[in-house]
Amino acid sequence: MRRRAVVTGGAGFVGSHLAERLLAHDIDVVCLDNFVTGSADNVAHLQGHDGFRLVKVDVSDYISVPGPVDYVLHFASPASPVDYAELPIQTMKAGSLGTLHTLGLAKEKGARYLLASTSETYGDPLVHPQPESYWGNVNPIGPRACYDEAKRFAEALTMSYRRKHGVNTAIMRIFNTYGPRMRPDDGRAIPNFINQALANIPITVHGDGSQTRSVCHVDDLVEGALRLLFSDLAGPVNIGNPHEVTMLELAELIRELAGSDSPVEFTARPQDDPSQRQPDITLARTELHWEPTVDVRDGLRETIAWFRNRADLGVKAGDSAASQTNVEVDRRRHKVAVIGTGYVGAVTSTCLAFLGHSVCGLDIDPVRAGQLNDGQVPFHEPGLPELLLETLRTGRLRFTDRPAEALADADFVFLCVGTPPGSDGAPDLAQLESAIQSLAPHLRSDAVIVNKSTVPVGSGNWTRTILEDALEGNRQLSFHVVSNPEFLREGSAIADFIYPDRIVLGGNASDVSRVAELYRPVLDQSFEGGRRGRRPTLITTELASAEMIKYAANAFLATKISFANEMAQLCELFGADVREVLPAIGADHRVGNAFLNPGVGWGGSCFGKDVSALISSGEEYGYLPSMLQATVEINKMQRARTVRKLQRELHILKGRRIALFGLTFKPGTDDLRDAPALDIARRLLSAGAVVSAFDPVVKTLPEEFRAVRLARDVYEAADRVDAVVVTTEWPEFALIDPAELRRVMRGDLVVDGRNCLSEASFATSGLRLIGFGW
């Protein structure tokens, strides 16, 4: 009779290699995984094997496996610093309850039991190299403790079952392992270094890079695990490569093998990051006759090639339906066209391709389409250039200026074109109408038109009518319309797309259901790096309600900021400090602190446009939204108040030199649309002031502002100025040296237009710091 093994975490990086090798030993494998960090893609090539079964099971729940079992291998656990931070409770459960349940299974079946423990049990070791007899130096309450202590508990429980119940157990302590099928975003050094090297972005090394690790190829690790499994040894036994390298040496080696020009950047070391890690493998050598044989250069070359060529980046089968026989893995890749590759369109195209769909972005501008095909993002958005390059490499993403190429076989068509405000505040729908009309000659029957453009309430019906007219002569072709408003914040758009608070879909129930399937990896957080504990809410509505939600959400946030500015103005009049008042208001869970920030006011492409559109739409129906009008007026006044503060302190602005710190409407973007800084600059120039400016991202300004001198840093911008105004809260400005700023300035006035500077750091600098509301 064939032998049979149960492997927990069998769809993970190491577990999948173990399953493969066990099958090669003519041992049937029952693979258990909950797909929190594992992926059915890792064992897809084993699915047709008669002796292989994949079952979706969480080992922290009771485990039942019918039939005989000869071996139980417990490898289920999140296993990277990113996982510890995101999944600390699940990590503890896998090490405690998971170990308890798998030991119970081994006891019931009379099976040989192998526990995958870790070198993390040694903590930040004071003994080097680390023998199995060393008890370790572990912080039991630190950020890594959920993993360290879970594994230490697992070892103790395993030995207790061996002594008390006679279970035939073995413990292996795994040192740093690498190879194909590593999660690209698991946060450990080798995946990070390889991803960065392949993207030609800076390779980030913690500390000065002198801390050491001993890296072992997964083939060597699996060989050691099987030799221990098939022996009578109880362990613990160190399984790892004793060849020790510094993190800096490892980064430089990966850069060399990847043929990359990436520079090395040094970042702060995480808490409890071990300074050294090297196994003493004397026991494995003498008792198991095992030692690693894969040369580190050869192993890294193979791993780099796998990262470079992997076809299914970012897709996990976490939402697969498990059964007692096999897991059904949904491998359908929907075909999506995205019309418009501006900010929303480029992010939507890239993220949908990242989720596993086949996406073609369409833009009438061939230059922009070509730039995106070359991996060049024509605007500033953190993380997007890297993700764009990654998804382009998979072959699932492309861009074109030819409608037939993008639309002919698309199941879904996303409308992501601009709807700028007209002179009356109402959105100009000309671009959207043109995009809808361009669909008609190429639209496939039964396609779903998904409108992400921000449009007036009722535009879903308008979209349907425009398309019906454009399809005149082809009445047999059916299509569906769904509203899917976007809630992407510039500077954090990638996170907003894949980790949203909610996804809003409006339309007929059957149409909405189809679009929801498109978003299934996001709704289930089943993609690589998904946050299983924070799944977004799916909100389904009628078309008009979905369109209204977008406007209402932005109107509320804009009103909240204007409310904060109203309170700041009153605080100045009454002698109160808004910096004490507003946090106390925000501490009420019904209010919250977000967007309760006074200063020079809001800007950007959304708030002003959407509030104006809502006001305009209300007026069409004979209703005047007076509160929203007040929201807009208060915001305009904040910009004028900034200039009045300067006038109050400097009296005459004509001939004064004023420096603006920050030009974009918010940090993390290069967007100048409706930026308060530009409005303030316009007012200062009209008053006869000489204006200089620095922004970390903006290097050119519209012709209207040619008189503004752009500087290379804050100190150059502040050279000989009478006053400085902070107009955008870039994090860099919190690092300003007040003494150096005072040295280069002629005057002594700093207006903190975002209340983001530390008053204490300016106290002894000789500078006068004034803000809003205090």
From TrEMBL:
Pfam families: Epimerase, UDPG_MGDP_dh, UDPG_MGDP_dh_C, UDPG_MGDP_dh_N. It catalyses: UDP-alpha-D-glucose + 2 NAD(+) + H2O = UDP-alpha-D-glucuronate + 2 NADH + 3 H(+). Pathway: Nucleotide-sugar biosynthesis; UDP-alpha-D-glucuronate biosynthesis; UDP-alpha-D-glucuronate from UDP-alpha-D-glucose: step 1/1. SUPFAM superfamilies: 6-phosphogluconate dehydrogenase C-terminal domain-like, NAD(P)-binding Rossmann-fold domains, UDP-glucose/GDP-mannose dehydrogenase C-terminal domain. Its main location: Golgi. It is found in: Golgi apparatus membrane; Golgi apparatus, Golgi stack membrane. This is UDP-glucose 6-dehydrogenase. It comes from Mycolicibacterium rhodesiae (Mycobacterium rhodesiae).
